[in-house]
Amino acid sequence: MNTRYLEEIGNIFENQNLNYKVLENLSISEFDDYKCYYLLVENSILYVISIGEANSQKSQLFFKNLQKAAQLHSSQKLTFIMDATQLYNIPASVRREIHFFDLSFRKYWAKVLFIYQGVGKVIMDMYSIHKPEQLEGVEKVGNPYLAVEYAINGRQSDILSDDYLNSLTKDELIAEIKRLKAKESIQNTNIENNGNEIIEILTNLSWEGKNTKLLESEVERFNPIQVLINTVITDYKQLARELEEIQEDFYNQLQFQVGEVLHQEATLRAIFDSLESIVWMIDADFNLLAFNSKFYKHVKVQYGIVPEVGMNLLDQKEISSVYEKTISRIKIALNGTEENYRDFYEENGRVVKVVDSKVFPVMVNKHISGVVCITDDITESFEAKEKIKSNERIIASVNKNISEAIYRSTHDKGLIFINEAFVKMFGFDSKEELYHHAKLNSLYANPDDRERLGKLLVKKKEVTNVEVQFQKKNGDTFTGLISSMVSLDEEGSTYFDGAIRDVTAIKSAQEKLKKQNRELKKLNTELDSFVYSASHDLKAPLSSVKGLINLAKDEDDKEKLAHYLDLVDKSINKLDDFIKDIVDLSRNARQEVSAEPIDFNELIQDTLDNYQYLQNYDRIEKKISVESDVPFYSDKRRLKVILNNLISNSIRYFNPFIDDPYVEIVISANETQANISISDNGLGIENQYLEKIFDMFFRASNSSKGTGIGLYIVRETIQKIQGEIHVKSKIDKGTKFTLTIPNLKF
């Protein structure tokens, strides 16, 4: 490999006083038989030298680095000089990679100069003959010296120009002529030697073929004919290798295809013999062409004949007489018609055997070459289908008359079977409407229940009587008990089979029964408490009155008698209050709620008037605020009971130790409800008793002045008119009751 050529080119640059450097990071030196050097000259010229044996891999690397070099100076384009004079040849694999002549490649360069020697000449000549249009703009230069001078000065020099010759003296001219003659003599000798060597190479190529060696000569390798011969030899060897690869690949594929054909034939024969059907084929003259093992056994067992390929069925009397019907069917197939047949065989009026047959013509090149007959004994499957049909009729009758909704569904397809009860239960017009109902989640009052139930089924495989709230087409809901199971068909598809029972009426009756039971328990508890407390609260005032009367009988002092009468009056008032509470409680439980227009101001004033004679009434400030811009309807009598109890408590339990006791009543009413708050700054209630104050006969202390059922009556009365009550209280700070009462008009 002539690596000294790099030094020769460097000498040319130095002789012309040109600055240059080898781009080491781009140069290719990792191959033993190929080198490439990228030289940057005067920062304006890229001189590229390729030396040795090229191939496709090296060519790709060469162009990759060449493109990097082109982008070294983004501010200006470089002049590109390609020196391929030191390559041994230019094989076809490399020629396919050459991009010098691509228009897209030329945009990177100010000029593209090609040294027209050696392989460079071969490349240019090839393109001149086959693709001359791609050489446009690529300039040929005779040698490296002229190429560099052209790149620097912008013109090509001719060492034999008239100006050059006229500048010589007589002796210099004689010396130049002698030099040229000597050079011509050497060239003639080289041409003769090269010609002989070329003849030898071509002879070897003819005799040795792909084993022909590349040209190894002491003659100057730059001769383009030598390079071209080496290129031809290299291409020939490459073609020979490709031909061998194609032949080897063809042989391998042929072996594979033959193996596949044999395998397929064996497979088809195995399949043919494994069929449960009796299969046989005859030609137009009724000669057997092929048959499977089932036909062989059938004919041998039934008729004692061993069938053979080529046997004529019409010549076999044992067969032809029995096959008379089949032969007529074969004649129909020979006319080009394919038919399916079903034959029933009876004994004593009962079907004992059912046979299906298919007879069809075999077409070869649009001509009928024979007939294939396929016969199956379907007695068992026929009987099974008949049983299935009978069962289906029974199931259809059950599905039509049963009240439960029966269904089958899949996760992807939705409902695929439902009965009439299902359609009726969900309020649809037809089965088809449900089959095409895309959003099955809408059949559930809570759409997430379908997904939840599906996951439960996948996990447990079966569920029984799961309670679910369903939704009808019109939006009404009902309670259903669903029982379902997961099943798989022969293909592994998953189905969800189940039944839904509407238990809304049962559920409603159960809830009503539970409610009545709770109310009954409550009434029993309250009755026990009432009997116990009432006997005490009724007897206590009566005993006091009786004792006071006995004292008064023997008393002559008028002042003491007056005091006794005052105590009797208080006991009677207490007894009267208790009786009123009992009457209010009884009325609330028995009488229906009535809706009457309410004047809140009037109600409050009537209530306050009832208690104006209470002790300390005048000391307590009454703050009243009523906002009601719409007609408000409620049960007037019950509202009176509620206000009487709450307001009277605020008055009775005021704080005597403060200077500004008050009762504040705030009411705001709208179209839907009234919000009522009754608050005071009285004695208050301890926090531990707040949850118990609405219990019957509960008294927070022995000093309580009431009967113990007032707040119980308030709670029961508010619940009767579907309202709510809440309480907040602090000892010595006061109490606040907050009520929400619905507007019964709306």
From TrEMBL:
SMART domains: HATPase_c, HisKA, PAS. SUPFAM superfamilies: ATPase domain of HSP90 chaperone/DNA topoisomerase II/histidine kinase, Homodimeric domain of signal transducing histidine kinase, PYP-like sensor domain (PAS domain). Coiled coil: none annotated. GO terms for molecular function: phosphorelay sensor kinase activity. It catalyses: ATP + protein L-histidine = ADP + protein N-phospho-L-histidine. Residues 533-745 form the Histidine kinase domain. The keyword Metal-binding does not apply. It holds the Pfam family HATPase_c. This is histidine kinase. It comes from Marivirga sericea.
